[in-house]
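Methods: example folding runs. The two proteins below were folded one after another, and each record is reproduced exactly as written to the output file, sequence line first and structure-token line second.
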Amino acid sequence: MDRPKQRGRGRPPKCIDGRLETRQALVRAGVVALTERGFALTGIDDVLTRVGVPKGSFYYYFASKEAFGAALIDSYATYFDRKLDRWLGDRRRPPLLRVRDFMDDARLGMARHGYRRGCLVGNLGQEMASLPESFRARLIEVLHGWQARLQRCLEEAREVGDLAADHDCAQLASFFWIGWEGAVLRAKLERRAAPLDCFAEGFLALLGMAGSVSEQSRFIQEE
């Protein structure tokens, strides 16, 4: 009977379950924890336990909790940039409907997790007074990237005549993310979709799409 091979001391296992690299698994678990509880309440031990990594292995992958947090911001930013590019960059759909589609998808995503997960960037922004100062510039950079994507979509709408020519697309994009992050925070607090619906209705009305959410959207109905 073959005996299982014993791993020597030193380097931690490269893979956790044969699918995810250990570092990737730690980042994924950390992102989930931060969207649920925030940075201050996310203990390194909790993340290690979720992934099944020995406590002494953490500093092989990350120099500090601050470095871990920076990696989580980068990972979430990459994921969310792709999501925005998928929805707001879909040229098969009219520009303003893309905005509505993104909000529909975000609402469904929060509902799928019982409104327990919010936005990692928004959560960290709420905690900024107690976070490493190095996070501030990166969070602002991420938000500006999101604004730029929405601004381009709104400018397309203006160019094709779906948005009034006097609308300031940069200002609208900034307004959207300030309000949407607040709606996500409140939806998580109340564990229901009403804050998201309220903001979506108001923003679409501002764009000249009054009534589109209730009449055309794919929003799931509250019980």
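Second run, written to the same file directly after the first:
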Amino acid sequence: MRMKMKILLLMMCTMLVWSFQAAAQYGDTLNQTDAQGRRQGTWIKKDASGRLIYRGQFADDVPVGEFIYYDDAARIKVRQLMSDSGTRAATTTYHPGGQMQSKGDYFDRLKTGEWKYYDQYGQLLTVENYYKDTLHGGFFVFYQNGDTAEILHYDRGLKAGEWNQYFKDGKLKTNGLFVNETLHDTITFYQPNGKVRAAGKYNHGLKTGAWVYYIETGELERMEHFVNGVKTGQEVMIELPAENYEPIGIEDDGDAR
């Protein structure tokens, strides 16, 4: 009987010590400021309902180390590792299921450098580059097998430079050029067998001049003529059934067809 009492008393003392330690760590030392009003140590933020929004560390009012942000279901939404006197944040975001959604850096709260984006199964979707929160540099899109589907470039938020799309087997599908967000100069569309499907020119987003179209064997199917995006005539060399006719150009979302 005395042995049981001793064990019970020891357990109660241990629990009491733990409670004091927890209070010291997460109670009295939370959200502290020094004599100058600067945030020091561990800080947390909750909304009006008491839901935890974030937890992180401050030193002399500067965020340091890891900050963790939570969603409405108390799941980790964002992790940030602070550096450079709180100006740089190496950031990882997460899908609701816990899988990584994106990874990259913020500088002065603006996206900078390379960012990678993933689906909920861990598949890399895109690799993007930023300058002051604006797309700038290479932009890469990937198929589910990891092969490249598209490569284009941005200059301060505008599509600029060479643009390539690829079939799933890696063969070139489209090759063109963007200038200030619009297609310009020669563009070529390819068939899955590697032969040219169509080719022509854009003048700042408008078809211009002669456009040529080929069938699967590489024979010339037809030639069309454009002025400022308006078709002015055509010559047909090979008549195709209506169901086999496929318009060639750029869809509204920028995808080649």
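Comment on the second run: The chain has two domains: 32-113, 123-257.
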